[in-house]
């Protein structure tokens, strides 16, 4: 294996920060919230994998289709022989569509889940034995760990899955600015962005018939119990997901069905019947509204690929 490091080597300090403080503070606010990242314990991550294959959840399969269909053209825009950095690489599955046409000199998958990332990178290395793979456990700010030997190459970032849309616009601009700094002066960003569409399609994607998204949402309470030595009872909450037209975003909440109390870190927190804990926001953009956001981060829109039903977009920006 060429660039692969041991799991210990790739665990950066970001993975060692205790997230419990943020979770506890969020649950003690008058408007309670659990940040979307707390959906992803082991069970939640596995469940999200199943959600991406649901008939109602069009995002993942439409993005895959666009990547497959346009991989040659994408490669023409991105150029060859670069350092290809994937933010939120997960199982390193999506990049497989692009590796042959792009022929990068090295691939740097970045993800906060160290163990899963390392395993995924190992699998990829088996199929692409000539590729230099350098996994980094952390986030896009962990650029100090980029492979020294390849630093002078043009840098292209992949940020797929419309994960950018889970951040409010101000935070999304900050992330895009960090990406811009990373790829400057001559790099590119290929990003997956979900589009505004008929509300009923959106409502179904986040309220699937099997109830997987509901389970995924309720699992945030289980994760909170694990992290805060808590006693949330999932049976006392309902999954609520709807499209907020004013804010142009899907919102997910957990709504308490009764007045009750929860213990977290030995502290008692009262919860009223009907009270909601906000757990996820998923903004929906037009090509123009996302380009305007990216431009605020210094990125220059170059090319967009959209499916026939105009459900989803892949957008390419230069620095
Ligand atoms: C990861 N992200 C783009 C998903 C979304 O559609 O906002 C998260 C999700 N959670 C439940 N369903 C989907």
From TrEMBL:
Residues 22-317 form the Histidine-specific methyltransferase SAM-dependent domain. Keywords: Methyltransferase, Transferase. Pfam families: Methyltransf_33. GO terms for molecular function: methyltransferase activity. The keyword Transferase applies. InterPro entries: EgtD (IPR035094), EgtD_Methyltrsf_superfamily (IPR051128), MeTrfase_dom (IPR019257), MeTrfase_EgtD-like (IPR017804), SAM-dependent_MTases_sf (IPR029063). One of its GO terms (biological process) is methylation. Coiled coil: none annotated. The keyword Cell membrane does not apply. This is Dimethylhistidine N-methyltransferase. It comes from Sinobacterium caligoides.
């Amino acid at each position: 294996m060429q660039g692969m490091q041991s799991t210990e080597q790739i665990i950066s300090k970001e993975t060692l920060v205790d997230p419990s403080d943020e979770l506890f503070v969020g649950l003690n606010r008058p408007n309670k919230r659990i940040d979307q990242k707390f959906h992803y314990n082991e069970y939640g991550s596995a469940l999200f994998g199943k959600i991406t294959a649901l008939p109602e959840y069009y995002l993942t399969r439409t993005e895959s289709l666009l990547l497959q269909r346009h991989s040659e053209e994408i490669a023409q825009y991105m150029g060859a022989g670069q350092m290809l950095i994937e933010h939120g690489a997960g199982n390193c599955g999506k990049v497989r569509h692009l590796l042959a046409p792009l022929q990068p000199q090295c691939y740097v998958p970045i993800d906060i889940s160290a163990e899963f990332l390392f395993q995924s990178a190992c699998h990829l290395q088996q199929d692409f034995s000539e590729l230099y793979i350098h996994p980094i456990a952390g986030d896009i700010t962990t650029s100090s760990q980029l492979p020294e030997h390849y630093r002078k190459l043009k840098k292209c970032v992949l940020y797929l899955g419309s994960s950018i849309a889970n951040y409010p616009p101000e935070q999304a601009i900050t992330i895009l600015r960090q990406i811009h700094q990373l790829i400057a002066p001559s790099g590119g960003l290929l990003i997956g962005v979900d589009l505004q569409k008929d509300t009923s399609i959106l409502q179904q994607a986040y309220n699937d018939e099997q109830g997987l998204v509901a389970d995924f949402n309720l699992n945030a309470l289980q994760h909170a119990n694990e992290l805060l030595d808590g006693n949330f009872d999932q049976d006392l909450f309902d999954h609520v997901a709807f499209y907020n037209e004013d804010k142009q975003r899907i919102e997910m909440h957990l709504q308490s069905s009764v007045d009750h109390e929860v213990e977290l870190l030995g502290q008692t927190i009262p919860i009223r019947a009907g009270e909601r804990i906000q757990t996820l926001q998923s903004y929906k953009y037009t090509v123009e509204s996302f380009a305007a956001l990216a431009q605020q981060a210094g990125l220059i829109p170059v090319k967009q690929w959209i499916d026939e039903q105009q459900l989803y977009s892949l957008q390419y920006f230069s620095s």
